[in-house]
Amino acid sequence: MLAIKSDTFNQSLLDYLQRSMTPFHATANLVEELKQAGFIGLEEGEAWQLEAGGRYYLVRSDASVIAFVLPKKASLAETGLRMVGAHTDSPCLKVKPQPERVKQGYFQLGVEVYGGALLNPWFDRDLSLAGRVSYIDAKGELNHCLVDFQDPIAVVPSLAIHLDREANKERTVNPQLHLPLVLAIAPENSEPKLRELLLEQVRLQDSDAERVLDFDLCCYDTNPPAMIGLQRQFIASARLDNLLSCFVGLQAMLGALEQGDDDQGMLLVCNDHEEVGSVSDSGADGPMLEQLLERLVPEIEPRQRMLANSVMISADNAHGIHPNYSDKHDANHGPLLNAGPVIKINANQRYATNSKTSALFRQLAELEQVPVQAFTVRTDMACGSTIGPLTAARIGVPTLDIGVPTFGMHSIRELAGSEDAYNLFRVLQRFYQG
Question: Which metal ions or organic cofactors does this protein require, according to UniProt (predicted)?
Answer without folding.
Answer: Zn(2+)
